[in-house]
Amino acid sequence: xxxxxTPFGRYRLIDLLGRGGMGEVWRAYDTETQRxxxxxxxxxxxxxxxxxxxxxxREALAAAGLSDPxxxxxxxxxxxxxxxxxxxxxxxxxxxxxxxxxGAMDPARAVTxxxxxxxxxxDAHRIGLVHRDVKPSNILVTPNDFAYLIDFGIAAASGDTRxxxxxxxxxxxxxxxxxxxxxxxxxxRSDTYALACVLHECLTGSQPYPGNSIEQQIGGHLGxxxxxxxxxxxxxxxxxxxxxxxxxxxxxxQRYSTPTxxxxxxxxxxxxxxxxxxxxxxxxDPGPSDSHTIAIPTGPPRNYYPSNPQGSVSNTDPTQxxxxxxxxxxxxxxxxxxxxxxxxxxxxxxxxxxxxxPNKRRRNIILASSIAAALAVIGLVAALVLLPGDKSAPxxxxxxANSGPLTGTYTLAFGQSIGISxxxxxxxxxxxxxxxxxxxxxxxxxxxxxxxxxSGSFKHPASLVFDDINGRWIAVTxxxxxxxxQDIEEWHWIYLLPRPDGSMAGEWIDDSVQCYSKRSVTxxxxxxxxxxxxxxxxxxxxxxASPALGLRGFYRSRVTTASGQPKxxxxxxxxxxxxxxxxxxxxxxxxxxxxxxxxxxxFANNAWTENSEEDVPCPAGGTxxxxxxxxxxxxxxxxxxxxTLSGHxxxxxxxxxxxxxxxxxxxxxxxx
Length: 672
Known about the structure:
Pfam families: Pkinase (PF00069). This protein is an alpha+beta fold. An 8-stranded antiparallel beta barrel has the order 15-16-17-18-19-20-21-22.
């Protein structure tokens, strides 16, 4: 891939993907992490506008406060050469608007996508953010039906009823709740209304109140009854009519209390469905029972927000998700049974194909894996780059044995062992290679991979489980190792980042109270693997995010004696935390900024404990054997990041005239 482009700090801006009200979105190459990302940059003419600058910063902070996997995380944000920027992940996918344009969706598939969007909204509402522009073009769906809610740039604090700085309403008329139209009221229930509108559109292919003018759409939201999906599709369960009616209730207090409650109701509606009988003949009067309740005309749907087929950058609606090329690839309109995990990304949605020829089948696999999308999360008009499709191609591809983003046989190339100081460690195993087999799958809760060593003999675990966390594949495990002639508990932390050549590179860290080793590692795929002996990652329980993960960044430590006197000079530490998949145990590594030493705190049962011992020189002469035992409770309420961590401990000193005793220690966060 060509990474030449316009220099912008650590980035190379390769090409412009979209332009919105708050800035431009570029496909860019990050020279530090060696990955292709989406970078949003504030236009020069807005950089001097304090209102725009404040909003830009608010967007970045809002996105940083969201942790649900269906909200795209940001990598970095800040200022370069006087211009604010946000660095985000590039995602493979297609927006829901273009998917619906292919036709109404299977109910199971529609509900699965709505469930994921509801989870993202619930996470935003939890911290007081209202999206205010939930619509199909702001929902990105990957080839394995993993959904992302994008464009949190117009998110506002709950209760904020203001318009934009120019007096424009934030949102899209076709999905706007009545209270926003007649009173300006803005709270999470408005997002629930919009999500119900999106569900209706997924099921029928038509917006709830389609019309050729804003007045028609506003009139529908304010005065017409909620539409009935089963009136447009006789094969839909009538219970879905009730879900839409409650989700689109005119009064906010009559709606579902949360978007996840609405999604659960939709799932229940298709689990035990009741369907309408076939409609009467076309020349038969349907009777008055339908004439006053169907609020949706039956004309051609989906002609109100056309995509941009010419490949140019759009300068229109700042929240519209513009398409850079005609949508192509295989039809993905069918769904899957409720509760079934989506198939791996390279396989496409799982459903039967009608006897496709081998050549057509291969073409579908290539197309599904080649769809590239650049997304923008926070006030961004993103664009999807899609390859032309073959409309005659079969509508499905069966999952392949080696499907998934991290599946196959890999060569692991390990670098030299490095100590805490960053210098090579003596008497360690030299650099070398191992062969591993990996098996991965992606589902509604993210991507996970199981791994097992086939050959090699480094002193570390022979099997691992990786999770894709914010763009990094991370594995954490514990075992017993020999260190300083003792059998001790050792933590192993491995992280990997994708590289432009398709390999994965990162570090393999082995850490314990007394022994430490870090090696660079590169995973290079060499071919398919026999996966029969690997555990099925889809059968594993979901990873649990521990509150201990909030302990990260740089902290200043102050240690005082029981009488309040300083025991040591203040010290600065860099702190990172990693946890076992169950979230029940974590390791927080406190590394002195001068890289001369580090401390390990183990998190379990809502508290960190320090339990270490070592031999150190005694200032009065001789050598002291020092044992440190401390307890640091999880702050209440738990925060992310944790700004202050306080605890109490005991220092036991023997072998010299130096004295120990009780101590108090406080870590105050000083920066990211």
